């Protein structure tokens, strides 16, 4: 059957719409003999039945192995050129106390970008000296807290922040290690909102100002300048941008060495992953080797010693290890004009949406989906997976092929949702945020509890007042029928109610 003319050029009709592309899905995801998928030995229908849907699922061993892999890649690459590397996990991708522990056990440091992320890392027992603190507008309270607990490095993002960090450290009789974030002008080949080194944006200071501002930092006895920092963007597939940024930074780094030690150089993160079979990110080992070689060559040209190199991967580590489970609610064929005739796209609506995955709405990001509660012999149909929010832009998967017999009640999974899905989640339309479940060795456990309707009402201080005026008790999860008793469409973990078998009812 020919490809649907409504499909984008990059999307190929699969030979088998039940198959999991190895480059996109966690390697532990397999089909059971009855066609149901299992991840890390745990059946997805059991996960949905126990925890409800939507549900974030993380393959714990895969997260850990990717953290170890990226650490080894950069450590080995820089050892080969006579230097060392530090790897920080970018907590903004997804941070919980369990994730923080997994990262430290894999030998990584952690970057935080708010007082809340700092609190999570500390609650996980992370040594504060192994933390970096980012942010373009850190509050005085956040800076005070960072200095109080002994955060290893604060990344200064503006000239005004120099005085704030210096004052916080001086008031506590401490010397705070700091980096200076600069913009190298290297524009990563990515979405404009994800490119963070070009000049017209909020992060960092101009590279031309680096020497002057480093001098200001060094004028404060309470600050210890350890080097420059640059982050060129996110979801970057190749090494060219990192190599060019490193070359520009080394020139300034060399001049800074004339006025004092500059032990480190932080090149940021942003290493891309495959969200679809069309994505071709570089192997992390190849990328690390290329950057190490460029940095070594530039330092040799400038006749300066190699600095300690630092990197900040987040998405690369946790993104591919996550999937999100949904339950299909409705399907709707839409016939459109295409290529001098007509073609059909099947809209598949699920019980989540932009509240649990904002990236398609924010960036137009592409994702991959599969029906995971069964297999099908039906021909592949072009689908658009839509959320349940009152927004026409509430799309989770813009373009993919699923079996054409997808029906209400089917379990659907979306790949590579470990990064920037839970951390960007919201309560839009008053949907509750899903739980996060870790799976390993045939077992599952909740690492972040899903919200309930009670949680949402507990923040609305008027809810109790209205109930008191009317003489009625406020609606609680245990009182609510159907979806209100569930996380967003699955059973309440608290009530243990059986899941409605919508697929059986649809037959």
Structural key phrases:
single chain, 507 residues, alpha/beta, Lyase, Ornithine Decarboxylase, Chain A, domain 1, TIM Barrel, nine-stranded mixed sheet, eight-stranded parallel β-barrel, 14 helices, 21 strands, 29% helix
Spatial gap, N to C terminus: 27 Å
Structural class: alpha/beta
Largest sheet: 9 strands, mixed
- Please, what is the average pLDDT? 90
How many E strands? 21
Radius of gyration of CA atoms, rounded to a whole number: 25 Å
- Looking at the structure, what is the overall shape? globular
Helix content: 25-40%
- Percentage beta strand: 15-25%
CATH topology of the largest domain: TIM Barrel
- Count of discrete alpha- or pi-helical segments spanning 4 or more residues: 14
How many discrete domains? 3
Structural summary, described in words:
It is a single chain. The chain has 507 residues and is an alpha/beta fold. The chain folds into three domains: 29-54 and 320-451, Lyase, Ornithine Decarboxylase, Chain A, domain 1; 60-154 and 173-196 and 206-214 and 221-277 and 285-313, TIM Barrel (Alpha-Beta Barrel); 455-506, no CATH class. Helix content is 29%, strand content 23%. The chain has helices at 44-51, 60-80, 97-105, 115-123, 140-149, 159-171, 210-218, 240-257, 284-302, 315-318, 359-363, 453-459, 461-470, 502-506, and strands at 29-31, 37-39, 42-43, 55-59, 85-90, 109-112, 131-133, 153-156, 176-183, 205-206, 223-229, 264-266, 308-311, 322-338, 341-350, 369-371, 380-386, 395-403, 411-415, 436-440, 443-448. Helix 5 (140-149) crosses helix 6.
């Amino acid at each position: 059957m020919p490809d649907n003319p409504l499909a984008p050029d990059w999307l190929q009709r699969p030979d088998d719409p039940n198959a999991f592309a190895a480059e996109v899905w966690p390697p532990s995801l397999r089909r059971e003999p009855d066609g149901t998928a299992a991840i890390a030995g745990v059946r997805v229908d059991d996960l949905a039945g126990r925890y409800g849907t939507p549900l974030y699922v993380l393959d714990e061993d895969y997260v850990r192995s990717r953290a170890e892999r990226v650490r080894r890649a950069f450590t080995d690459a820089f050892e080969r050129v006579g230097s060392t590397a530090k790897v920080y996990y970018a907590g903004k991708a997804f941070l919980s106390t369990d994730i923080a522990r997994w990262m430290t056990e894999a030998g990584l440091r952690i970057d935080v970008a708010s007082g809340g992320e700092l609190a999570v890392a500390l609650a996980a027992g992370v040594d504060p000296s192994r933390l970096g603190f980012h942010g373009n507008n850190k509050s005085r309270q956040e800076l005070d807290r960072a200095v109080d607990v002994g955060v290893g490095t604060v990344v200064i993002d503006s000239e005004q922040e120099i005085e704030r960090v210096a004052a916080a450290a001086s008031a506590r009789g401490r010397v705070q290690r700091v980096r200076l974030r600069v913009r190298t002008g290297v524009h990563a080949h990515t979405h404009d909102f994800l490119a963070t080194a070009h000049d017209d944006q909020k992060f960092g200071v101009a590279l031309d100002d680096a020497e002057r501002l480093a001098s200001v930092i060094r004028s404060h006895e309470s600050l210890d300048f350890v080097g420059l920092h640059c982050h060129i963007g996110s979801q970057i597939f190749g090494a060219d941008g990192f190599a060019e940024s490193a070359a520009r930074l080394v020139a300034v780094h060399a001049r800074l060495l004339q006025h004092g030690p500059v032990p480190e150089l932080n090149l940021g993160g942003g290493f891309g992953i495959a969200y679809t079979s069309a994505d071709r990110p570089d192997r992390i080992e190849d990328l690390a080797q290329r950057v190490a070689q460029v940095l070594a060559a530039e330092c040799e040209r400038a006749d300066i010693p190699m600095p300690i190199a630092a990197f900040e991967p987040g998405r690369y580590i946790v993104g591919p290890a996550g999937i999100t489970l949904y339950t299909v609610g409705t399907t709707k064929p839409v016939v459109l004009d295409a290529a001098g005739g007509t073609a059909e796209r099947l809209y598949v609506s699920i019980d989540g949406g932009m509240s649990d995955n904002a990236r398609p709405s924010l960036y137009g990001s592409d994702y991959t989906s599969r029906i995971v509660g069964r297999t099908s012999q039906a021909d592949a149909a072009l689908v658009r997976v839509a959320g349940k929010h009152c927004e026409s832009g509430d799309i989770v998967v813009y373009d993919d092929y699923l079996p054409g017999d997808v029906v209400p009640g089917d379990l659907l999974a979306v790949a590579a949702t470990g990064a920037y899905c839970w951390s960007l989640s919201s309560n839009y339309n008053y949907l509750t945020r899903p739980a996060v479940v870790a799976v390993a060795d045939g077992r599952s456990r909740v690492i972040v509890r899903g919200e309930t309707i009670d949680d949402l009402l507990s923040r609305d201080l008027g809810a109790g007042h209205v109930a008191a005026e009317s003489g009625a008790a406020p609606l609680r999860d245990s009182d609510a029928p159907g979806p209100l008793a569930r996380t967003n469409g699955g059973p309440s973990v608290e009530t243990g109610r059986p899941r409605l078998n919508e697929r059986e009812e649809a037959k």
